Amino acid sequence: MSNEQTPQHGEELESGVEAEQHAADQTSEEVVELTEDQQRIVELEAAVAAAEAKVADQKDSVIRAMAESDNARKRAQGEIDKARKFALEKFAGELLPVADNLERALQVANPEDEAIKPVVDGVELTLKSFVSTIEKFGMTVIDPQGQPFNPEQHQAMSMQENAELPPNTIMAVMQKGYELNGRLLRPAMVMVTRAPEGGVDTQA
User: Cys-Cys link to 181, which of 85, 104, 143, 163 (CB 3.0-4.6 A)?
Assistant: First the structure.
């Protein structure tokens, strides 16, 4: 009786061991599969991060390129505006002697001489028309009679004591100055007052 039961008991033990081994094999396969999935996820996350970094870098490059383009456009526009403003500078400088000669003609003419009155009137009209024309192109006349001396616009040719005017006041304009769009073409040549005890302060 006992000899017949032993093989059956052994078979049961062997069957249990095989079941446990099979279960262990399945668990090992699941662990391997899970590890591979996790690795794939890590790889995908790394790829996404790299792509996002590349996109961000390209976005910065585009922004920088747009900023550089805008700055270049502004510089070019500034150069165009400057060229437009001062393109006539040399030509305007050549016109100044014309105005000077017209003014000298009026200074030496006798306004009470009826014989030359039509000529004087014509010169005055010509000078007014000339000044009006150049002002349309940004030129302005500097005629500082009675104003304080300004070394940025005036050139003191002489100084003279004067009790009626404060020191450093322009008492006479020998030659008018001109500006073109705020840039000095020629300073006004002037005579400046001074106090009896001192000279002209050209920095006033």
Answer: 85
The two three-digit tokens of residue 77, written as one number: 């526009």
Q: Structure tokens of 162?
A: 């004067």
Q: To 10 degrees, the CA torsion angle through 97, 102, 108, 113?
A: 170
Give the domain range for residue 72: 1-87
Give the span between the Cα atoms of 64 and 74, in whole angstroms.
15
- Based on the number of CB atoms within 10 Å of its own CB, is 143 exposed (0-12), middle (13-18) or buried (19 or more)? middle
CA–CA separation, 76 and 86 (whole Å): 15
* Three-state secondary-structure class, residue 116: coil
Which three-class secondary structure string do you get for 35-89? Answer: HHHHHHHHHHHHHHHHHHHHHHHHHHHHHHHHHHHHHHHHHHHHHHHHHHHHCCH
The answer to whether residue 57 scores a pLDDT higher than 70 is: yes
Q: Are 189 and 173 in contact (CB under 8 A)?
A: yes
- 178 vs 90, which has greater pLDDT? 178
In angstroms, rounded to a whole number, what is the distance separating the alpha carbons of residues 107 and 91?
26
Report if residue 34 sits inside a domain: yes
Q: Which residue among 87, 112, 130 closes a domain?
A: 87
For residue 167, being part of any structural domain is answered with yes
